[in-house]
Amino acid sequence: MTYDGSRRKGPRRWRFGIGARLGAAFVAIVGLAVGASLVGWLSYRELSGELSRIAEVQMPQLAFASRLSKAGADIGSVTAALTGAETRAEYDETRRVYAERLAALQALLEDNEAEPSVQKLLPLAASINGNLARIDLAAGKRFTLAEAMRADVDELRWVQADLIEEADPLVDDIRFNIEAETRNGRSAAALGEQRRSEALLTVVSQANLATGLIARLVSSATAEEVQEANAFLGDSADELAARLATLEGWPDSLTVRQLARRILQQSDPATGTPNRKRSEMREAERLGELAKENGRLVAALGQRIEAEVVAIEASAGAAAQRAAAAIDLGRKLLAAIAVLAVALAVVIGVCYVHRSLLVRIDQLAHAATAISAGNPAVPIPPGGNDELADLARALTLFRQTRDELVQSAKLAALGQMAAGIGHELNQPLAAIRAHIHSGSTLISRGNSEQALNNLEKIRGLTSRMAGQISHIRRFARRPDAKLQPVDLAAVVHEALSLLDHRFEEEGATLALVLPPDLPHVMAEPVRLEQVVVNLVANALDAVAERPERVVTVTAVGSGEGASLIVGDTGAGIAAGNRDAVFDPFFTTKPVGAGLGLGLSISYNIIKDFGADIAVMETGPRGTSFIVSLKGAA
């Protein structure tokens, strides 16, 4: 309950205001939150046991299963590369990786925290390790034979080159001998030389062929390719041996025969390259068998690992299901409480906070903004029986006070001009008394024509006094909120007429510049006249103590309207005060010399016109205010 602090008569009473209503809503929401917390505590207490078991048992097992599965997959991924290596360096690198992964798997299986069923995989890992040793042996023999065969091929290519180099001069000699024997008519000898040439050339060609076939044999990958290369190599070796036999009695062919026999040695199926190739193929076949065995062992290991991982995952899944069952009831209860809380929040937010508070606050804010801008006709939303109703009544009172304060400011200005107004009225009254006295004398003397002339003068003076009083009454009355086209020059003249006496009494000079073609502006004449009076009165105050006392009033027309500039030759506005000159109750005058409302009221009036007022310039030589008014359509 909140205390009703309104200024109504009668005893104080308590009421169910905004604070009490929001407090009740807060208590209701807090009650729902406490209920949700209680439900959560009861349901999650059961859940905590399952979560502890999952964290302490199932999660380590799942992590172990993940590592175990990865270790098995790592071994399986490198198995094919191990047996398919083409070079010793490639094999050594693959074998190193394979051994590291196998050692990691064995270390994982030997972990003390591993399940007994997992540790049963150790013999299988040991079998893979033993098979790896046999693969090492077979691969080592295979690479040794392959390297030896490549060395044989390299050597044979050098032998082939030397054979061709040795055979070339022998061929040239045979050709020379054939030509010489032919010229000497020894055809039989020439025929013998011809046969020797054919045998030498055949040896060279068969040696080249045998060398190429040996190279082809070394690079053969299948048994069919090896058999085909061996068949051609045997035929070539037989032909080479037969041709070498025909060169046995020729001493010059000794080197050629030695080189050719070296090629024949490498072509020997029992001791040469074909024998090494057969051995290399046997080791490759054995390596393939070991690879199959290794693949079988790795596959079996993967299956066992997969079975263990599935078992661990099933155990974790069962624990998760128990945890889900523990959550389900709490979730349903929390959902029900959440729905109730949302419904309550919607009711409070939409039905009360939005409709009863925010909308009214927005209306009050709009009204306060309009009141601060000087709009006297802005509607204030009706009240009720809560704090916002008090605020609405306070705004109403504030608007009344503001309007009264503005009116008081105008009346104060009239009060300050009272002496001048009395002077304006006393002069015509003195003249009237003089004319009445003179008229009485003229009538007594029978000069009625001259007496009528005095009466006409009296009528003119009374008309002048009536106009002056009408102007003062118009300035003092409350203004109209409706804007209309206004003659700016006429308003300026009327405002200055109220301050003529101050110029005379204070010895100030008025510099007035009003163009004849000045456009009309949108304003309310009484309030615009009040702005001009305030600005000119401030200018007179600013030059009161100055040696040069000049007040300048200038109007300038433009395409958008007109601007009124009021300047003085005062001391200027201090830099620290320039931003505060339009604030209410701000004044630099002595205490009792002013309320500090003139410029503030003028600012709000001009803003209400949709126009602008600002300090145009200020300094030691004086200050100028500019009022920019919109033109009448």
Automatic annotation (TrEMBL):
<keyword id="KW-0472">Membrane</keyword>
<dbReference type="Pfam" id="PF00512">
    <property type="entry name" value="HisKA"/>
</dbReference>
<dbReference type="GO" id="GO:0005524">
    <property type="term" value="F:ATP binding"/>
</dbReference>
<keyword id="KW-0812">Transmembrane</keyword>
<keyword id="KW-1133">Transmembrane helix</keyword>
<keyword id="KW-0597">Phosphoprotein</keyword>
<dbReference type="InterPro" id="IPR003660">
    <property type="entry name" value="HAMP_dom"/>
</dbReference>
<dbReference type="Pfam" id="PF00672">
    <property type="entry name" value="HAMP"/>
</dbReference>
<keyword id="KW-0547">Nucleotide-binding</keyword>
<feature type="transmembrane region" description="Helical">
    <location>
        <begin position="333"/>
        <end position="353"/>
    </location>
</feature>
<dbReference type="InterPro" id="IPR036890">
    <property type="entry name" value="HATPase_C_sf"/>
</dbReference>
<dbReference type="InterPro" id="IPR005467">
    <property type="entry name" value="His_kinase_dom"/>
</dbReference>
<dbReference type="Pfam" id="PF02518">
    <property type="entry name" value="HATPase_c"/>
</dbReference>
<dbReference type="InterPro" id="IPR004358">
    <property type="entry name" value="Sig_transdc_His_kin-like_C"/>
</dbReference>
<dbReference type="InterPro" id="IPR003661">
    <property type="entry name" value="HisK_dim/P_dom"/>
</dbReference>
<feature type="transmembrane region" description="Helical">
    <location>
        <begin position="21"/>
        <end position="44"/>
    </location>
</feature>
<dbReference type="InterPro" id="IPR003594">
    <property type="entry name" value="HATPase_dom"/>
</dbReference>
<keyword id="KW-0067">ATP-binding</keyword>
<feature type="domain" description="Histidine kinase">
    <location>
        <begin position="420"/>
        <end position="633"/>
    </location>
</feature>
<protein>
    <recommendedName>
        <fullName>histidine kinase</fullName>
        <ecNumber>2.7.13.3</ecNumber>
    </recommendedName>
</protein>
<keyword id="KW-0808">Transferase</keyword>
<dbReference type="InterPro" id="IPR038188">
    <property type="entry name" value="TorS_sensor_sf"/>
</dbReference>
<feature type="domain" description="HAMP">
    <location>
        <begin position="355"/>
        <end position="407"/>
    </location>
</feature>
<dbReference type="InterPro" id="IPR036097">
    <property type="entry name" value="HisK_dim/P_sf"/>
</dbReference>
<keyword id="KW-0902">Two-component regulatory system</keyword>
<keyword id="KW-0418">Kinase</keyword>
<keyword id="KW-0614">Plasmid</keyword>
